[in-house]
């Protein structure tokens, strides 16, 4: 038992518009105090482009409409009035893998037609093989180290850290200017020496040319290189493109450099206040369920409900395990948190992809393709790992549908048919394609033996083992219903895993003296149920994790919280305040023994319900919440059905009318 813890049409792409056209000269004028008058039509055009991008993203992505709305709202001031910004807009995107963080940003850039003013940067510590050691060098090499509006995505930020797991400073100086950029949007010009050297080389070349002219020699015009042109573009913040700069006479370039040096602006930090900074990453410390990557049997809605409860506080706490407090502050307060996709999201995604494949085949080969819901169901059962997001789903669609469909298309083309209907027969364990129409007078049926990879694992469960697990999980469920009055979110005894035998998934339970005692009984109930049904000699070792959890709760009950009648100090303290913890051992042992006896009595009082639940669970491998509740009510238990994300908490609020 787990620990108690906390066909839709494709819209056409919007006509590309240059959303931001703030040039370096406009920025320079504004910095000199020259008022910029924004054309109302320009503002309207920018707003329309932003809304078109939002609609386009919602058509493309599944289950993240709310996140898209939050992103568009957070970047609105940058999109409409970048000229008014005095520091960059920083937006953070957090979520588990596969929810579409990076892909969302890339499609946003495409929708805004900003590809030429966008760059992705992956920060890393000193062991990286990256050529770059600073954000400034990355921007410079891509021609974006200037004051004009741009978008920078710092992706996979979890790979970068400034403190180790023990909170000690890391000595690497790589990408240290990242914090400068987040602080006030300014990056120091670290290439001043290169700038002076380039100026000297240009002057030297020009003097050599002058000498040749004085001696009547023919002088071949020498252009500066692309690298030098790129450096000058960034250092002088020139509006010309690279080729235009290459074509500028050296004498003119020298004069521009000298004017810039006299003005001293060339030595000032580069102002990136008009930049939209997007920071993206997977913070496993905030998403506790992120480590359950191999779990395919827990309802996706449960994972989704848990991610709904991840807050900005959790995110900042997770960031504090990687970065110093003053650095965490520089991420700002705009944190967009992706929830894990729910069951309906995955179902819609599968259906949409199936429709896309069918339309593609019809377009290419003129064959009408029909795929039943049973095929989509087998894809879901074998392709959805909720914590891993959408990538495994696409893989399973290719494995289950596309690879087999290719055979049917070949056969249909060979016999001159016009349609293919694909179905799945779970009893026979095969995909069945009915090919018809065109030159065929009779239907042609093709069967392909197929059992999903996860279904195959589930099918290998030994019947006697499933029977044992069913009783064990039924024990947890009966105790949970009787003590909390709730039907568990899931009750499963046949899973696609060699590590987990089954599970009873609870709601979030508020920690109180009584709830701790009740949870200990629930953990103990699985093993006790086995003893009641199979006898003590046949009770399995499946109780191991349950006993560990129960013991941990009992130790906390006494040592941490002081709920014990005899021990009220905190025996969990360490170092100078540490106390002899062994003095509490006898009370902990007595508590667990007493609670074991109490839950045994409880289960014996509902033994018929226990056996009925176990039988139903053994037959199906899982029971839905309505079935569990109905059985419990038939035995006189009051049971409530609550959704994922429900918090069971006592009624603390005092009614002032009483």
Topology:
Elements: H1 24-31, H2 40-60, H3 65-74, H4 76-80, E1 89-94, H5 101-112, E2 118-122, H6 135-141, E3 150-155, H7 178-184, E4 186-187, H8 192-214, H9 226-236, H10 242-247, H11 250-263, E5 270-271, E6 275-281, H12 300-308, H13 312-319, H14 325-330, E7 335-337, H15 343-365, E8 368-371, H16 373-383, H17 391-415, E9 419-425, E10 430-436, E11 444-449, H18 453-459, H19 463-484, E12 490-492, E13 503-505, E14 508-509, H20 513-534, H21 544-560, H22 585-605, H23 607-620, E15 622-623, H24 625-634, E16 647-648
Written account of the structure:
With 658 residues, the protein is an alpha/beta fold. The protein folds into four domains: 24-186 and 271-337, Rossmann fold; 192-268; 343-459, Helicase, Ruva Protein, domain 3; 463-648, Up-down Bundle (Methane Monooxygenase Hydroxylase, Chain G, domain 1), CATH 1.20.58.760. The chain is built from 24 helices and 16 strands. A five-stranded parallel beta sheet has the order 2-3-6-1-7, sandwiched between helices. A four-stranded mixed beta sheet has the order 8-9-10-11. The protein has a three-stranded antiparallel beta sheet with strand order 13-12-15. The radius of gyration is 33 Å and the shape is globular.
């Amino acid at each position: 038992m787990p620990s108690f813890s906390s066909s839709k049409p494709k819209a056409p792409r919007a006509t590309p518009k240059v959303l931001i056209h703030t040039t370096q000269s406009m920025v320079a004028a504004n910095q000199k105090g020259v008022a910029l008058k924004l054309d109302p039509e320009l503002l309207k055009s920018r707003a329309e482009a932003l809304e078109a991008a939002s609609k386009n993203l919602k058509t493309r992505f599944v289950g993240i409409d709310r996140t898209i709305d939050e992103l568009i709202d957070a970047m609105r001031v940058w999109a409409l009035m970048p000229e008014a910004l005095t520091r960059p807009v920083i937006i953070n995107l957090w979520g588990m893998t596969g929810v579409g963080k990076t892909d969302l940003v890339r499609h946003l850039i495409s929708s805004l037609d900003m590809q030429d003013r966008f760059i992705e940067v992956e920060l890393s510590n000193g062991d990286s093989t990256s050529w770059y050691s600073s954000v400034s060098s990355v921007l410079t090499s891509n021609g974006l180290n200037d004051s004009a509006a741009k978008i920078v995505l710092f992706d996979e930020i979890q790979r970068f850290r400034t403190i180790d797991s023990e909170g000690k400073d890391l000595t690497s100086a790589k990408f240290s200017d990242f914090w400068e950029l987040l602080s006030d949007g300014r990056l120091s010009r670290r290439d001043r020496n290169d700038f002076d050297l380039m100026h000297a080389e240009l002057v030297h070349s020009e003097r050599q040319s002058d000498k040749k002219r004085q001696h009547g020699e023919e002088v071949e015009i020498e252009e500066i290189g692309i690298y030098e042109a790129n450096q000058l573009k960034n250092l002088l913040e020139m509006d010309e493109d690279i080729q235009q700069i290459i074509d500028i006479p050296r004498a003119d370039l020298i004069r521009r450099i000298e004017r810039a040096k006299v003005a001293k602006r060339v030595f000032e930090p580069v102002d990136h206040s008009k930049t939209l900074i997007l920071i993206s990453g997977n913070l496993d410390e905030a998403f506790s369920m992120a480590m359950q990557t191999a779990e395919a049997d827990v309802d996706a809605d449960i994972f989704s409900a848990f991610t709904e409860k991840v807050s900005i506080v959790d995110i900042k706490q997770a960031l504090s395990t990687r970065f110093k407090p003053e650095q965490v502050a520089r991420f700002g307060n705009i944190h967009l948190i992706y929830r894990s996709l729910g069951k309906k999201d995955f179902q819609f995604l599968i259906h949409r992809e199936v429709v896309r494949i069918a339309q593609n085949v019809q377009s290419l080969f003129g064959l009408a393709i029909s795929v039943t819901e049973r095929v989509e169901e087998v894809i879901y059962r074998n392709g959805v790992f909720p914590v891993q997001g959408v990538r495994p789903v696409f893989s399973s669609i290719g494995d289950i549908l596309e690879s087999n469909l290719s055979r049917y298309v070949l056969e249909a083309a060979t016999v001159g048919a016009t349609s293919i209907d694909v179905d799945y027969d779970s009893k026979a364990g095969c995909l069945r394609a009915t090919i018809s129409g065109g030159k065929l007078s009779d239907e042609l049926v093709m069967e392909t033996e197929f059992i999903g990879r996860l279904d195959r694992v589930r099918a290998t469960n030994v019947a006697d083992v499933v029977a044992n697990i069913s009783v064990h999980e039924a024990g947890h469920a009966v105790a949970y219903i009787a003590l909390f009055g709730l039907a568990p979110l899931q009750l499963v005894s046949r899973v696609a895993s060699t590590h987990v035998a089954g599970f009873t998934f609870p709601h979030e339970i508020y920690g109180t003296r009584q709830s701790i005692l009740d949870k200990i009984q629930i953990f103990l109930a699985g093993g006790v149920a086995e003893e009641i049904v199979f006898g003590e000699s046949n009770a399995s070792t499946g109780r191991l994790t349950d006993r560990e959890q129960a013991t941990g709760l009992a130790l906390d009950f006494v040592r941490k919280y002081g709920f014990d009648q005899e021990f009220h100090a905190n025996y969990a303290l360490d170092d100078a305040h540490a106390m002899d913890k062994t003095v509490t051992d006898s009370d902990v042992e007595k508590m667990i023994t007493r609670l074991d006896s109490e839950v045994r009595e409880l289960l014996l009082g509902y033994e018929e319900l226990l056996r009925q639940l176990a039988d139903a669970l053994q037959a199906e491998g899982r029971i839905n919440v309505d079935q569990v509740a109905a059985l419990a009510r038939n035995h006189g238990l009051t049971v409530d059905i609550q959704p994922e994300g429900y918090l069971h908490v006592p009624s603390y609020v005092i009614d002032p009318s009483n």
